[in-house]
Design a protein that fits this description.
37% of the residues lie in helices and 17% in strands. It has 21 helices and 18 strands. The strands form six sheets. The protein has a five-stranded parallel β-sheet with strand order 11-14-17-10-18. A hairpin with a 2-residue loop joins strand 1 and strand 2.
């Protein structure tokens, strides 16, 4: 080959859940043989050369004994992961006249290459497919492994390939694309969402006020705090809130599956059920909001997007970790700043938290005395800052369940019955408020649908307790949800009175 040859392969780089276009520019020329990668590649991308060299040789191609320079443009965007292997391999083949480059012009390519030439799926295939669609590309060459999720993206023709030789044949048109295999999740849809099979609100004995609070929180998307001694059913109720939530629409399913796919979870197949995340005790702020090396992995907040984040024993968590919740709960997103890029991850979650009233858990118990000293109690409660508590819409104090309730028949309603009322209330709210729940509705809309007497009662009640303006906003939204559950067009005094009862139940003193 005389002179030099330049080819371009189009791929995508993931920055959070957004797939950004990247041009893999391969130049082959005379000079000292070797491969030079530029354009902010991370370690996995820099190691791609060795993988691609072995794969080409084992797939019947030759590694050109020339100088190869590869630029990943734009050069100021960090490139992370092994998804650049396949575009690099095809670019080198085209630049060394082993592949007809004309088939690469309108094609997006993404995937990892093994040493034997086989193609392996990489995290974030769904995000790549959505990004390709957004950029106007209608053909996507990816490994067969994991390609089934692309069937959920309209307007994209996925071309799955098992190995490098088949990928080259697809580019040149020597092989017809095979059908995309159906998406498969070996753990089943409920496991993909994190929802436990077989749980039901009917399992909870007693606690009528707490069950009502769960219904109100679910109908309006409100954050919920359950306070009570050990064994009163706080965790049972928290994990059953998702059972009364309606299924997600298609757009929300894609958003959830995209986040889970980027995180490299066990299943990124779109599921109709809202996700549930319940991190174990001792989680860090980074585990909660995301981060890490490269462009950052989604944390628990993003993995619970459009679903429920259950934080058990909230006050056992350090205050610095809990305060990381404040902005995401307010804005519905997590922003991770890096030196060269800012990544925004979705985090529209419903927080359901539980806590004991004190370190020993017995404060306010009707039969057992609290053994905590005042300084211990003060330190314990100081972990929950006022601004964070202000963002929690519904507070419920729970008491131990009487023995006759435990041994008697179920005394509540099943999740299916409550779910019907929740869905009806959500449908009313979305029809009134441009498709959003009361938690996220415009203040003017919520205010306009309440009576003057209801607003006066709310103002008087909150002023007597010295509550903040944010408490006023949150409480009126809860009242709006209670009205929706009752099928009422206007928020009246009864709705506000119940909302005040659910809002102003704090930690026992």
């Amino acid at each position: 080959m005389s002179g030099s040859r330049l080819t371009v392969v189009h791929t995508l780089a993931l920055a959070g859940v957004e797939a950004r276009p990247v041009r893999v520019e391969c130049a082959v020329s005379g000079g000292l043989p070797g491969l030079r990668l530029v354009g902010l590649p991370d370690t996995a991308v820099r190691e791609a050369g060795e993988r691609v060299r072995a794969a080409l040789q084992r797939s019947g191609f030759r590694w050109p004994p020339l100088r190869i320079v590869v630029n990943l443009a734009p050069a100021d965007l960090p490139k992370v992961g092994t998804g650049f292997d396949l575009p690099l391999a095809l670019g080198i083949l085209a630049a060394s006249d082993q592949l007809d480059a004309r088939g690469l012009a309108d094609l997006r390519v993404h995937g990892e290459v093994g040493l034997d030439g086989t193609l392996r799926g990489v995290p974030g295939v769904l995000a790549v497919a959505i990004g390709a669609q957004r950029l106007g590309s209608d053909r996507l060459l990816i490994p067969e492994e994991g390609s089934g999720v692309t069937a959920s993206v309209a307007g994209i023709t996925a071309m799955p390939a098992r190995d490098l030789a088949e990928a080259a044949a697809l580019v040149e048109g020597r092989a017809a694309p095979r059908p995309v295999p159906p998406p498969a999740c070996p753990t089943g849809p409920s496991a993909c969402s994190g929802e436990e099979a077989g749980v039901d609100l009917l399992d909870v004995r007693g606690q009528p006020l707490a069950r009502r609070a769960v219904e109100v929180a679910a109908a309006g998307g409100h954050h919920l705090l359950l306070v009570g001694p050990p064994g009163c059913g706080k965790s049972m109720l928290a994990r059953r809130l998702v059972t009364v939530l309606p299924d997600l629409d298609h757009a929300a399913q894609l958003e959830v599956a995209t986040v889970h796919g980027i995180a490299g979870g066990p299943c990124d197949v779109p599921s109709p059920r809202p996700p549930v995340r319940a991190p174990q005790a001792g989680f860090t702020a980074a585990a909660l909001v995301g981060g890490g090396t490269g462009l950052g992995r989604p944390g628990e907040l993003s993995l619970a997007h459009h679903g429920v984040l259950v934080l058990d024993e909230l006050l056992e968590t350090p205050r610095a970790v809990l305060d990381a919740l404040r902005q995401p709960l307010e804005e519905g997103r997590v922003v991770i700043d890096r030196a060269r890029v800012r990544v925004t991850l979705p985090a529209r979650v419903q927080l359901v938290a539980t806590t004991n009233p004190c370190p020993c858990g017995m404060l306010g118990h009707p039969r057992r005395a609290c053994t905590c000293r005042p300084d211990q109690l003060a330190r314990y409660r100081s972990r929950l800052s006022g601004p964070l508590l202000d963002r929690v819409d519904v507070h419920v104090a729970m008491r131990p369940v009487p023995r006759d309730r435990l041994i008697g028949p179920p005394d509540g309603e099943p999740s299916a019955t409550v779910a019907q009322r929740v869905r009806a209330a959500q449908d009313l709210a979305r029809a009134r408020q441009d498709g959003v729940l009361n938690r996220d509705a415009a203040w003017s809309t919520v205010h306009a649908s309440s009576s003057v007497r209801a607003r006066r009662l709310l103002a008087d009640g909150l002023e007597a307790l010295g509550a903040s303006a944010r408490s006023h906003d949150r409480c009126l939204r809860v009242a709006r949800t209670i009205a929706d559950l009752a099928g009422a067009a206007t928020v009246d005094e009864d709705h506000v009175a119940e909302a005040l009862g659910l809002r102003l139940v704090g930690l026992p003193s």
